[in-house]
Write a structure and sequence with these properties.
alpha+beta, HIT family, subunit A, 17% strand, globular
């Protein structure tokens, strides 16, 4: 991990709370509460990089297979219709991608980019949040990834 004084992501990467899976290159974390959609997770690079253009060879080799595996397992664990993926790279010096299950029933009937409005709505108390359900999904996801981790790059 590339650490930098004052980097909040570097600090989070050293704390076990919220970690669902990790290896030398990546960490998968549950988003911080409030959790508007059970199963909403982040794939975070361990080192500072703005986006995929800055992946080194090992990260680039790992990224696709890791992401595919994480999505397949998340689909299996949640029963979601699909997993949305978004990475903007504006808020932190670590590449991170939001992986959000899209269920048949969503708060505010959110779909596509509207799902990302749910995080703001949860913080504002505009939608109900079931942290117990989010914790159950996170635990199942952690267990499933421990039993069948993503492929390890050479």
């Amino acid at each position: 991990m590339t650490g930098a004084a004052g980097c909040g992501i570097c600090t989070k990467l050293t704390k076990p709370d919220g970690v669902l899976y990790e290896n030398a290159l990546w960490q998968v974390r549950a988003i911080e509460p409030p959790t508007p959609v059970p199963g909403w997770v982040l794939l975070v690079s361990r080192r500072h990089l703005a986006g995929p253009a800055e992946l080194d060879e090992r990260e680039a080799e790992s990224f696709g297979p890791t992401l595919r595996h994480l999505h397949r397992v998340l689909l299996d664990v949640t029963g979601a219709l699909r997993i949305y993926l978004a990475a903007m790279g504006e808020s932190a010096p670590h590449f991170h991608a939001h992986c959000v299950p899209r269920y048949a029933a969503m708060p505010k009937d959110a779909k596509a980019w509207g799902v990302f409005e749910l995080q703001r709505a949860a913080v504002a108390g505009e939608i109900p949040v079931d942290e117990a359900a989010a914790a159950r999904v996170a635990a199942r996801y952690r267990e499933a990834l421990a039993a069948a981790p993503p492929p390890v790059p050479r």
